[in-house]
Amino acid sequence: MVLKIGLTGGIASGKSTVSNIFKQLGTTIIDADEIAHNLVEPDQPLFKTIVETFGDEIIQTNGYLNRAKLRQLIFVEPELRQQLETILHPAIKQTMQIQADKLRNCYCILSIPLLLETQQMDMVDRILVVDCSLKLQHERLQQRDNMSIIEIERILQVQANQDARLAIANEVIYNNSNFNDLQKQVLFLHKQYQKQIFA
Fold this sequence. Notes:
Elements: E1 3-9, H1 15-24, E2 28-31, H2 32-39, H3 45-54, H4 67-76, H5 78-101, E3 107-111, E4 126-131, H6 134-145, H7 149-158, H8 162-168, E5 171-174, H9 179-195
Parallel strand pairs: 1-3, 1-4, 2-3, 4-5
Helix pairs in contact: 2-5, 3-5, 4-5
């Protein structure tokens, strides 16, 4: 049976970079964000449900969801965020499980940014947390997404804090240094997961 590793971490902690390194090593990545993206394409049933819930103003002129506008809405109104999660998360979870069940690899990565927040720990065998300092998270969000301090704080407030994530981790990758250091940490874990040998 395939070993399922739940990859999680705070926003801008480096989860995508870590996923990409694992992918380059030949690891199958099942990505919750990617699945969510596909589930809300205009021809998908969930697209209609989201538009009915949040209104036509979240549709762009090209007919696709205006993700930036939707993100602003859900981070200002917690009730709206819960509504969106209720629509999306069961379908994402089901899709991830179906994809994982088809695999014959020794292990795979389930990338679930909100693993702890949505209490989906039962989906995985081990939890890998990508961690970095709060200062670096702020810097990366400002550079990457051009977010204001207020927007950043809103997002960080609805995510689990660093201590809570580290408390559920079986393994931790620290992304406070450089890319080479990150690669070394991933390669070490890749070998462990392949052999299924854990400290």
